[in-house]
LPP20 family lipoprotein (Candidatus Bacteroides pullicola), 605 residues
Amino acid sequence: MLRHLLLSILLLAPLATLHAQSVEDIQRDPSYLWGTGNGATLKQADDNALAALVSQISTTVSSRFEQLIDEKKENDQIATQEQVSSIIRTYSSATLNNTRRIVIQNEPDAVVMRYIKADEVAHIFEGRKTKLLDFVDEAVKLEKKAQVADALRYYYWAYILLQSYPDGSLLTRLDDKGEEQLLTTWIPQQMNRIFEGISLQVESVKLADNLQTIALSVTYQGKPARNYDYSYFDGRDWSNLYSAKDGRGIIELPAAARLDKLSVKTEYMFEGQANIDNELAEVMRNVTPIAMRASYQTLNLKDVTPKAETLADSLSAAAQALQTNSGMHFLTQDETAPYQALMQRVESAIEQKDYESLRPYCTEQGYEMFRQLVAYGNARLLRRPAYRFLEYGGEVTCRSLPLSFHFKTNRRVFVEDVVIRLNREGKINELAFGLNKPAVDDIIHQTAWGDTARMVLVNFLESYKTAYALKRLDYIRSIFSDDALIITGSVLKASGLGERAPRDKNLVKFTRHSKEEYMKKLEYIFAQNEFVNLRFADNQIRKSGIGGEVYGIQIRQDYFSSNYGDTGYLFLMVDLNEPKKPVIHVRTWQPEKDPNFGLIDLSFF
């Protein structure tokens, strides 16, 4: 320590000279871009130096932002330069702070220089390119699953990020036919094709509590849209944002409203959700929004008459596959009579808000979950459901009860399919927000896993997302092992290799949290928020080769709460060796795919 102190003192005198010389060398060298800043403090001077450097970077790349230059500004160099500078500032402060710094003069009259090699500027933009291409890939995959809201969201976000990427007008990708497509034209074409494939039809109209509830059928390319977000113009203003699920949506109007036509807008910008990604939110604030005319359509309400709903809902391919399996099966219509009667009691309790009347038909746990669920977001029944009853091991699962949820502190209206599970005595023992049909099908089709594993996996994922909504901290605590590995992951760059660093998982740095730390964090979150809602955009499940019934679950998760939201990739390693007591040994979360190692999965453990 003493030796280091003496060395610092000896070097202090010539330091200013070395820096002065270094500054002069850099300023004379055309291979560098640099900026200097003054300020009362080092931070203020540094911020000003970064702003000056941004201006230099903007000048060098402005010609590469052709798609950003408005026709009215083509001859306005100052306006163009300001526009490019504002976009350059959207790149993460961490990225720009990786530029080198020299303190020319210390406080109180600080002077700082920031500089970067001109040929290193391209590296600043690589992260954005990776993110926007990842968004495109997600959109393509989700569109094929009829997840309309998710596909449009990622297409639009990719399109916005494209406006902030140098040479974005030249960026391409291969389409399904192997043909190269310019993203600047291909992305809006894909979005317009989705808009054209969406069909809205009125199914029924219900009058209650001075409210006219119109039940919608939402299809995409002739099939139920797995999710779809929209708003509508009621003659005075645009509504809150509504979320349809599995082809079911609603429109709510005053009972006295008499409209022949209704303008409906398909949501595609998702500006509120963009705030969960600071980089994306910054870009959306600095890039002119892109209006998509095809997002509007007119819903004809003239001569609409209510029609009765029936139990004609056909079994999905997954259901048909289950019927051939001796272990679990959907009940025939003749077998469902007592369960249909029970579900009618549930519907009546919700509509009449007479929750106590359902208590004799529930276990203690079931009634408490029912009470919490209907209180969550002022639940309302969407329509007369078409139930399916799945029996396995003497227990019956009812799929599903469509409910909408409204919150005082949020303009979003959620639609969820509620799954009700009955014990061997036929009493309601548990309720959960159901997975969408593709997610269930993905699991059910894995016949090699066995009936118990598949059933437990579906129940586990549904119970997991519901536990966060209903703030069931005790349940969440019970499914995590005491020594659970709760981590976030980041990659360590190999020294000297730069972009050529190998994708070695040994270079991944993990930040670990204990179970108790995580539970305390959740307890605080639950106390501070009116609601918490998890939405799974996709899930992939793999069975481990060791440990018996151990599974790795990767999920694209959107997290919403009253005052916060984020999106990213959730990974769970779950032990199902005791089916009644699933245990999470590993939980990881990444905001995005790492460019070096992708997503954390079973191979890391």
